[in-house]
User: Fold this.
Amino acid sequence: MDSSTLRLHHSDNVVVALRPLELGEVLVAEQKLAIRSSIPKGHKIALSAIKSGQPIYKYNQIIGFATIDIIAGDHVHVHNCGMGEFDKDYAFSSAAEPVTMLAAEQRRTFKGYRRPNGKAGTRNYIGLIASVNCSATVVRFIAEQINQSGILNDYSNIDGIVPIHHGTGCGMANSGEGYDNLQRAISGYINHPNFGAILLVGLGCEVMQLKHLLSEEDSNPLLQHMTIQQTGGTSKTIKAGVAAVTAMLKNANALQREEIPISELTLALQCGGSDGYSGITANPALGRAADLLIASGGTAVLSETPEIFGAEHLLTRRAVSESVGQKVIDRIDWWRDYTHKNGGNMNNNPSPGNIAGGLTTILEKSLGAVAKGGSTPLQDFYLYAEPIDKKGFVFMDSPGFDPCSVTGQVASGANIVCFTTGRGSAFGFKPVPSIKLATNSEMYRHQKEDMDINCGDIVDANVTIDQKALQILDYIIAIASGDQSKSEALGYGDSEFVPWQIGAVM
Assistant:
């Protein structure tokens, strides 16, 4: 291997540039390979001639097909590599190896909040949740009045007020996939263990009625609800909302952090603004950290179904049963139909930023993205925002749009988020802390106020995947125990509740 390039598998016919390469450079360690054009860092170089129509291999997997004849030393990218159909061996459950679990005395703990229902929280927020966009402004005004009053200064165990608002809740069908998605998302936030108390606010006449979000048997004093119409308008609802929250503060503040096994952590695995380093550094390191968490009894949730397209066969092989693996394939087929009906296709990814960072096709992007899921068996496949009821590695269906996907993961029960990025994604996901993992050192240095951990040193400082995974797990435990992540310190998280909308807006 030349120090200027990285070959990920001996069967690959491309290597990755670890620095910008110029026309005429000769890579001595790559059989004196002559570079035929300027090639940016993170992009691919052909190791040998590849005829038009022949597959291009990276990670020992097909990432696309040559659209023209490619010569050794050529830059391999969107100008000469494209999508193509090929057979995949789903080999259901063939790679589902049992997890070697840590002994109870070896399992670590974090300092979290044990809720009365047994769930564990990593934060203790007050949630103000709008059932419909029509109550979004009132929810925001209630939060502003509480924050301006300074009353929260008297309650040190409360992390703050989170106004949860969105752009839907009415003008939609009152049944079907879109309605179910929104109902599960809001219900998941209402019941999330990172909320110590909840005020649910509706308008009154919307499709997403409060009665459909609340259990008839629920008499929880830390869950209050009201509608603007019934309360008597905007000003009266703001006043009533402030009073309702104020009345809940003492009880919400009474809960103290305590030692809780990390088996109670549910980790959302996400990537955004990916680049050519994502599948080499941060994603496999996060996957190894997920394995470590799972070995202690924890849960890790992979999502973004369009971004496993082309790599779904790697998940079906890890499925605990053929029925679980078939759920993956059935949902991929659903997405093919969904995108077709909406005038799109499954290769509308990568984004312009992904392409600039070295990713060429959705196949390449997906193979890197799946690495976040580690190596343990796939225990089950869940619909968007569906409550997760199994431990270990699971998958939740979602779009690839990051705020929408994480909204579903949080609603499903994730109480901490790890987010890998190569281009520099910047947002958070209250009430759940979000940890940003940089895939390359250059971006980490440039955007250090947003990035929690640099994974670029796996390539440029010989840090091993195992070493980085331990660093990530240590950081996860520290953040779960109350330390602030970078996005929390910046105040992100009030605007990223983005439920997945399916269906006509009417």
The CA atoms of residues 19 and 41 lie 4 Å apart.
